[in-house]
Inverse folding.
């Protein structure tokens, strides 16, 4: 019984990671660095809160969250593809930008510097308390299917590995990448939406590094959607453990919180097998 | 599209290459600031305020009084250190996102050294010991991603981001579990190495946090300029940053340069910790870095990775930070955070774009 409760809690905690990692895999496989997942999530969370608050309908919130993430996905794509800006710098700038913008509009819309008022969310309990939980579990297999079993996925992998070859075959490299990055923003935005709806409000910087953990899961999963999904579940299980062990003196919570980050460094050292990022990652096409 | 630029026309006058470099270096940050200014105006207007009134308030609240000026100089000091750290890495072609945790680690190490030295220890020596401790701690945090990159090919951006989380959590744990003064999140006050605030010493800068550390920041900038442009090591570092394959061919150990650059970068960021610990509060406090490490990225970009540029950019961003508090009466202070991020984004976009446009226009001239 407690094991079941543990698993259920792990799945719920994993949902935002799964959405963001699914999106990040798409962008990274197309060759665009996904440091901005954190910003996409935060903007998704804030737009979802706005949408749900003003409409009184959680589904409007979901739609707004999706759009909020996609808008910054578009910004990232334009800056890194149209203007060929350094993708790492763009990612960091977007994360900082979203923190500033959400704080600015939090004050503007709700007159508060810390959180929004209570917003409408889905009702019900357990596994189906939010439709985003089953959707979040399905999004990883869906992205895996997209990447490995569809023509778009083939092009996606081609532009991420060898854009010049893709060009010579007539693949519109930048269009494939635009789609991937905007989709990654929308998916990560859904991850943030889940957070805001789950807590019935938006709070300042509520994503708290989850976008970076999702990126860690992608690297740990060696840029494979299924493995990245498993890594998300693993990190979520560690977090669940941390919550369950709170108050137990023997294991400081700070150490459990470090697990994803330490594992990523270990993965990068090649200890769990060589991690090979997409060959064209970070390089804008000429 | 064309990948190779046309060969330079042999008829171009002498000094043209220098002018080209100068234009391509100085124009992007200027363009970026103009973009930010326009967006800032729009934000202010959308609030129903006049941009002129907001900017006047911003200047009055910063350079318009001695307290404000002192606070700007204090903030610029930390930003100079983190900006120099990021800039040094970028000169070698490595991107240090870890300045935030390196700064914290340096501050923590300085506080530990200050606590450990007996009270009444000669201040000058104590300051040097604390500074070395800060540099060592920050340098260690920087050396890890350097070794990871050189030895395993791990991307330094990912490793430094992960280390930010790990190091900050570790410091929080040690302070919370072992070192803090009850009811607070900070260590006890240091016994040796404390530097007086200029306000306490001369009554200058009216109660602000400005302190002698700002001279250390300028000295660090000067040392870095000398190192980069006047030493063999610095030349190697820049060669690796410009063209690693060519540098390797020229006999430079690229991996070695990466490790050294990241270690020195971390050490510089770590030294920034003394501004708060030795010069201002005299203890280590959880969260004192407060984003200065990340803002260092912006400072380095706007300063175009040149030590002098970094100092100017640090003053600019410190003015914005401090000015944000002053303009809060008219517009939310969060506007400044938005503008700072827009400056970074605009620099990133305008660097390749300005170069492209300049080259296109030269081609037309020729």
């Amino acid at each position: 019984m407690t094991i079941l409760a543990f698993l259920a809690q792990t799945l719920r905690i994993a949902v935002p990671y799964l959405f963001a990692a699914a999106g990040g895999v798409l962008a990274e496989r197309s060759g665009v660095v996904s440091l901005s997942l954190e910003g996409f999530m935060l903007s998704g969370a804030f737009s979802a809160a706005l949408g749900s608050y003003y409409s009184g309908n959680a589904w409007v919130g979901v739609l707004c969250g999706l759009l909020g993430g996609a808008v910054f996905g578009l910004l990232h794509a334009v800056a890194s593809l149209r203007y060929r800006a350094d993708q790492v710098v763009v990612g960091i700038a977007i994360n900082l930008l979203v923190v500033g913008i959400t704080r600015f509009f939090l004050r503007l819309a709700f007159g508060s510097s810390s959180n929004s008022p209570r917003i409408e969310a889905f009702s019900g309990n357990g596994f189906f308390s939010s439709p985003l939980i089953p959707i979040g579990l399905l999004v990883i297999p869906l992205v895996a299917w997209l990447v490995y079993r569809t023509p778009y996925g083939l092009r996606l992998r081609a532009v991420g590995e060898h854009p010049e070859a893709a060009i010579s075959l007539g693949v519109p490299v930048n269009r494939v990448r635009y789609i991937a990055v905007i989709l990654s923003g929308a998916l990560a935005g859904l991850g943030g939406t889940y957070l805001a709806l789950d807590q019935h409000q938006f709070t300042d910087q509520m994503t708290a590094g989850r976008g970076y953990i999702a990126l860690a899961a992608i690297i740990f999963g060696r840029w494979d959607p299924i493995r990245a999904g498993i890594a998300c579940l693993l990190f979520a299980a560690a977090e669940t453990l941390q919550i369950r062990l709170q108050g137990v003196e023997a294991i400081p919570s700070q150490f459990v919180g470090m697990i994803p980050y330490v594992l990523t460094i270990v993965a990068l050292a090649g200890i769990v097998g060589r991690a090979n990022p997409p060959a064209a990652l970070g390089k804008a096409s000429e | 599209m064309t990948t190779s630029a046309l060969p330079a026309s042999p008829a171009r006058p002498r000094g043209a290459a220098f002018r080209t470099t100068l234009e391509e270096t100085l124009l992007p940050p200027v363009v970026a600031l103009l973009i930010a200014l326009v967006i800032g105006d729009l934000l202010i207007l959308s609030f129903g305020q006049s941009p002129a009134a907001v900017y006047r308030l911003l200047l009055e609240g910063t350079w318009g009084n001695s307290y404000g000026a002192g606070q700007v100089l204090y903030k610029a000091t930390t930003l100079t250190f983190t900006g120099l750290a990021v800039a040094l890495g970028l000169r070698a072609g490595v991107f240090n996102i870890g300045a935030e945790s390196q700064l914290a680690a340096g501050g923590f190490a300085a506080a530990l050294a200050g606590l450990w030295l007996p009270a009444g220890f000669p201040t000058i020596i104590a300051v040097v010991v604390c500074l070395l401790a800060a540099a060592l701690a920050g340098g260690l945090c920087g050396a890890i991603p350097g070794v990871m990159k050189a030895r395993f090919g791990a991307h330094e951006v990912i490793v430094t981001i992960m280390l930010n989380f790990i190091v900050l959590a570790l410091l929080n744990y040690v302070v919370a579990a072992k070192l803090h003064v009850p009811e607070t999140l900070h260590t006890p006050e240091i016994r040796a190495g404390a530097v007086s605030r200029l306000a306490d010493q001369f009554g200058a800068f009216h109660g602000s946090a400005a302190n002698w550390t700002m001279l250390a920041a300028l000295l660090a900038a000067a040392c870095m300029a000398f190192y980069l442009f006047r030493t063999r090591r610095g030349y190697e570092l820049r060669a690796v940053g410009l063209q690693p394959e060519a540098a390797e061919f020229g006999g430079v150990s690229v991996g070695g340069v990466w490790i050294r650059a990241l270690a020195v970068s971390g050490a510089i960021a770590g030294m920034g910790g003394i501004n708060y610990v030795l010069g201002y509060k005299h203890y280590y406090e959880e969260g004192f870095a407060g984003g200065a490490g990340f803002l260092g990225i912006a400072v380095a970009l706007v300063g175009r990775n040149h030590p002098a540029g970094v100092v100017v950019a640090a003053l600019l961003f410190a003015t914005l930070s401090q000015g944000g508090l002053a303009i809060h009466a008219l517009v939310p202070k969060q506007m400044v955070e938005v503008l700072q991020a827009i400056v970074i984004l605009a620099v990133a976009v305008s660097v390749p774009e300005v170069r492209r446009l300049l080259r296109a226009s030269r081609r037309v001239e020729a």
